[in-house]
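Write out the 3D structure for:
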Amino acid sequence: MKPVRICISSPKGGIGKTLISVHLSWFLSLKNVKTALIDFGSTLTATKYVNRKAFNEMRKNSKESGVTRLDKNLVIASCEDWDKLPKYDKEKESLFSNPQSPPLTLENGKELETCRVFIYDTDHFISSLVYFQDNFDVIFLVIDPGDFNSLDNLTDFWIMLKNARDLEKSKKRIFIVANRTKNSNLALKKIKDWLKIRCDELGIESSKIRQYQNSIEESFVYQFTIPKFLKAKDSFISSQPVWAVNKDLKDPFIQFYKFLKNGKVL
């Protein structure tokens, strides 16, 4: 069966990208979907979150990469410092394009062969997504609409994306998710307003700006927002989902799952 490849990225750190990657992986595994979480974070935060024991073992044994099975439906591939390995770009791209045939340099890579869904927790290489986007079935861009740096980086990426790719093709693959907000409409307005400011700075004509704004709106996910998880610290330390601390915090990931099902991704 062809694998489903879901990329979770963000225009800056500290927005909740890894928390979403980890919890979506947990949720899918609980739905009996064989899932692999690919941790491309430079600090292996996703690995640390889902299995602190595995993370500590890697640090103890000075390992830089490897695959750990967490249960029958979930494995995590820790890929820190792959830039130190030979043929880095080719191997990284192989994990994107054909994750069920992992590179030999990835220890225990065979664990990935039977996985159906691959969730990639990236390391903020958002500009690279312009060139890598064809390797993913879905890309979620997680933004904080109250953070100016987040908005600035997103709009710069969007302008570059729309200059390089076909609008129809990208809008069916790339979706924007607002974190730390309860008002989707206000979040979208902030993004579109900031996009206009940035386009005006770059001297982009008004008809093109409207095209960018419309494509942003078409890619924005209204169905759900991700709240700020006040109890995430406890779940992080204990390597368990936030809904183990507060069952209401499972709701955003139920919506995530429905979104993927309704879009026929899963």
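The first strand starts at residue 4 and ends at 9.
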